[in-house]
Automatic annotation (TrEMBL), chain A:
PANTHER family documented for this protein: PERIPHERIN 2 LIKE-RELATED, TETRASPANIN
GO cellular component: plasma membrane
Transmembrane segments: 21-43, 63-86, 98-118
Matches recorded under SUPFAM superfamilies: Tetraspanin (SSF48652)
InterPro entries given in the database record: Peripherin/rom-1, Peripherin_LEL, Tetraspanin/Peripherin, Tetraspanin_EC2_sf
Name of the protein: Peripherin 2-like a
Pfam families in the record: Tetraspanin (PF00335)
Region (Disordered): 334-366
Record's subcellular location: Membrane
Automatic annotation (TrEMBL), chain B:
Membrane topology annotation: Multi-pass membrane protein
InterPro entries, sorted: Peripherin/rom-1 (IPR000830), Peripherin_LEL (IPR042026), Tetraspanin/Peripherin (IPR018499), Tetraspanin_EC2_sf (IPR008952)
Protein's cellular compartments: Membrane
PANTHER family given in the database record: PERIPHERIN-2, TETRASPANIN
A single Gene Ontology CC term: plasma membrane
Protein name: Retinal outer segment membrane protein 1a
Provenance organism: Amphilophus citrinellus
Keywords (A to Z) from UniProt: Membrane, Transmembrane, Transmembrane helix
Family the UniProt entry places it in: Belongs to the PRPH2/ROM1 family.
Gene3D superfamilies given in the database record: Tetraspanin
Entry coiled-coil feature ranges: none
A Pfam family: Tetraspanin
One BP term from GO: visual perception
TM helices/strands, residue ranges: 59-79, 100-122, 265-286
Amino acid sequence: MAVLRVKFTKTKRDKLAQVLWILNWISVVTGAILFSLGIFLKVELHKQREVMAERDIQYVPNMLIAVGLIACAINFLGGKICYDCVDTTKFLRWKLIMLPYIICTFFFTFCVLVGALMCYCMHGELEESLNLGLTEAMRFYKDTDTPGRCFLKRTVDMLQVQFQCCGNNGYKDWFQIQWISNRYLDMSQKQVVDRLRSNVDGKYLLDGVPFSCCNFNSPRPCIQQQITNNSAHFNYEHQTEELNLWMKGCQQALLEYYTNIMQSIGLTVLITWLFELSVLTGVRYLQTSLENVLRQEDPNSESDGWLLENSFMETARSNLNIIKSLGKGNQIDTAGNGDPNINVPSTSKAHYGPDNVPPKQITEAS
Amino acid sequence: MVVMKMKFPFQKRVKLAQGLWLLSWCATVAGATTFTLGCILKTELRRRAEVMDNQDIHIVPNTLMIVGLASLGINYFASKICQDALDAGRFPRWKNFLKPYFAISCFFTVLMLLAVIMSYALKGSLESSLKVGLRNGIRFYKDTDTPGRCFQKQNIDRLQMEFQCCGNNDFRDWFEVQWISNRYLDFSSKEVKDRIKSNVDGRYLLDGVPFSCCTPSSPRPCIQYQLTNNSAHYNYDYQTEELNIYLRGCREALVNYYMGLMNTIGAGVLSIFLLQGSVLVSLRLLQTAMEAVAGKENTEIETEGYLLEKGVKDTIMEYLDPVLKFLLLKNQVEEGTAAATSTTAKPRSGK
């Protein structure tokens, strides 16, 4: 009992082949779009690599790039096959390749689905990577004279300006690290020495933030020093002041940014997956209907097309048997319950030379 | 004296018509490109409209947009004409249309060239417009509570950060303006009172700049206040310190940006101008070659094509004659009455 049997007249077959040809070319274009989306995501992640710790997040854009390229190749081949399928004689060329092609494409669509799901699952890893990366970057903010970290200050400043954020989770993160290098601290001043002595690690901590945390929407000039000291500034209360500095943390800002990108990409990949699946279904119908036409030996007659020849369970069972028999070829024939003492006559005839006369049995005579 | 006479055998005419059809469609795309370039330039100019005093520079993108739209029409008709050119039956209906068509096309093509020239000529106007606009922007920076000027601070801050510049000519412009509003000054403090008394207008002037002048590339945290006071900061010499704040003025930064944009657009428009010019020249040659064929039985004869029948000066006079006649018509009437009065006066004097 075939799965989803459909009757195909000659004209219907031809139209199906032509439509599939066009759809395959559209799929090539969507494959190229997937590829470019993968490249775009890779570039965006690369841009902020300095505030991301080492984590396995590159697999998502790499997967998208690979899927995009393979989709282009598969659909290009599919387009050629469908173009030739209008003519029954040309179909004979592709007859043997078509079934493996359909199976490969079926497994490939799984890869596309996996790619789409990966986009949504990257969130946790990205959050961890950003958390660690930003903490490190802020700690080395002051080390503009250390090779390898010279430009970290610039990176963090530009990040805070561009994404309108301050610190890791909020501006208070800057209160807990020394972000002013000792090179610019006058150690002879009493105020500086007091601050250094006031904590265990001997760090110069203050309730101030770098200039890049300043919010330009504020109606008053930016207050970046003595933020928690209300009396240091005229008409200022730091608990209610919201517009002075950026309130959002950079971890949250970057996470939102990347999540938006990946949600859009994930949606595009899902739509591509559905499209590929429909094209694959069409190709399968085309293949089965053309094979049935060849069996009937009249190229202009009606034929049946189906997804699976027998029901789903039977097809699965027969495929499993095929796979099992592939494995059996190497095994010894164990008839007689595996007892090596029982003489099991060989089923194949032995060849005893050109005369084919069996040799005399050597009797065990005493 | 004929300008640019060329012989056209039948095959060459056919090839010319076919090539021209293709060329005119390319020119249509080029016309759409010109329109797009004009729109881009206009959008970029409008984005910074708050720091520009006048809108004189907008004539460049406006001209480009008009020329782009006109060239769409010109090239559409060019393709239609050359399609009909080889058909002796259909070509004569374009006869009366062609003279004004060429006049209008030449006008718009020359306008394209003018737009590019104007973009260089108006550089001075752009600079003075920015000078006044930025000066006002800096002056009203502190007025975040005045309706109509609430967003000046935001605009100037964003501008300085995006274009990496500070002040009008340089950062010292901020020393001459009170950029901290009186709402945030503690008038009971001695320091504030001293500063206000120290100048004639009673303004709170200081040697400091807003945070948006700070460079992220600086190795040390930004010094924005007491810039000229070396002793206020450890290990600081303001004469040699180059990386602390942006040293470039915003006027220079903006002029460079816009001139760069207009150079790029100008290069594109010049190549489109050459394309459009070649379309018109080819169409003219095709038209004159086909006119010589008209009325003959054998349409495959060799004919001559030319650009202008008479010389350049004579052709211009020919086109301007109707315009001048219209203007001179009034003078002719006056001359006639003057002649009549003089003839009536003459016999009296002769007596």
